[in-house]
């Protein structure tokens, strides 16, 4: 299931990005709730919210992969609805899909992960991401040749695993918003995570864009830079963006309307360089 698409680098100059377009309550969009089949036999439903611009398409697609809350049952997490993220991309002519992986919210199945083996957890996420993308390729309004897969926190770790092992040919780039997996209280979780990032970087040539902040309650910025260094050690193309301080906790930047100005200019450059412009 490894993708064979041609990687796109960041070395060529890209056109100047347009500013994030204004959003009002009257801005049109369409919203569908899909039950996509997992890769299991028998399959279970991956409940997915799909946001579409008005019109017939086909539209470039972003697949946004959610994180995992500390403590409690993953099923108790609300269904992933990244409104602040989707609004910007829809205004620029992109579709956004937000699948809920196995064992999260109202999706079926069970998700098992532990900070001692983040590579296994990343692979579990990646399998569900593959299944969601595979099903979305059949949607009549989706352009199967223009896809970006993104993720937040644990979902970003799964996104990087998907890019190395499972990537579809139409996936042109990956975006990592504050990705990783850590222990809640125990010590020693940093080394397994570093080894996982090093392993994932050895297995991909798909370009990725990384966002980390200086007041992230999950990842100190020094650790985030170490994760990036481990990932690019063998030549994986990944550009690191330090978004500085954001509110009380930079970890939530991508889910916050106020965070758009921090990530949109860099994403717009990525879209221009990757031939992913939707408008």
Automatic annotation (TrEMBL):
| SUPFAM superfamilies according to UniProt | alpha/beta-Hydrolases
Pfam families, from UniProt? Peptidase_S9
Q: Does the keyword Lyase apply?
A: no
Q: Keywords for this entry? A: Hydrolase
Q: Which GO terms describe its molecular function?
A: carboxylic ester hydrolase activity; serine-type peptidase activity
Looking at the record, the residues that make up the Peptidase S9 prolyl oligopeptidase catalytic domain are: 88-161
What does the record list as GO biological process?
A: proteolysis
Show the InterPro entries listed in the entry. Answer: AB_hydrolase_fold, FrsA_esterase, Peptidase_S9_cat
Q: What is this protein called?
A: Peptidase S9 prolyl oligopeptidase catalytic domain-containing protein
Its taxonomic path starts at: Bacteria, Pseudomonadati, Pseudomonadota, Gammaproteobacteria, Pseudomonadales
């Amino acid at each position: 299931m490894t993708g064979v698409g041609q990687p796109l680098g960041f070395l060529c100059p890209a056109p100047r990005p347009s500013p994030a377009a204004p959003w009002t309550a009257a801005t049109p969009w369409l919203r569908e709730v899909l039950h996509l089949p997992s890769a299991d036999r028998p399959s279970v439903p991956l409940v997915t919210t799909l946001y579409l611009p008005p019109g017939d398409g086909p539209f470039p697609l972003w697949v946004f992969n959610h994180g995992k809350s500390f403590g409690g049952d993953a099923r108790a997490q609300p269904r992933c609805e990244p409104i602040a993220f989707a609004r910007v991309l829809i205004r620029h002519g992109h579709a956004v899909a937000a699948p809920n992986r196995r064992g999260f919210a109202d999706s079926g199945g069970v998700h098992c992960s532990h900070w001692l083996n983040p590579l296994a957890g990343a692979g579990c996420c990646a399998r569900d991401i593959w299944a969601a993308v595979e099903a979305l390729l059949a949607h009549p309004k989706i352009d199967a040749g223009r896809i970006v897969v993104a993720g937040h926190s644990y979902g970003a770790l799964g996104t990087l695993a998907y890019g190395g092992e499972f990537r579809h040919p139409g996936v042109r780039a990956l975006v990592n918003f504050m990705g990783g997996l850590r222990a809640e209280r125990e010590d020693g979780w940093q080394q397994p995570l570093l080894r996982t990032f090093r392993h994932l970087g050895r297995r991909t040539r798909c370009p990725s864009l990384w966002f980390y902040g200086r007041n992230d309650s999950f990842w100190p910025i020094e650790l985030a830079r170490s994760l990036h260094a481990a990932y690019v050690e063998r030549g994986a193309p990944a550009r690191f963006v330090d978004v500085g301080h954001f509110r009380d906790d930079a970890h939530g930047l991508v889910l916050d309307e106020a965070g758009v100005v921090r990530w949109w200019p860099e994403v717009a450059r990525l879209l221009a360089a990757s031939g992913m412009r939707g408008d």
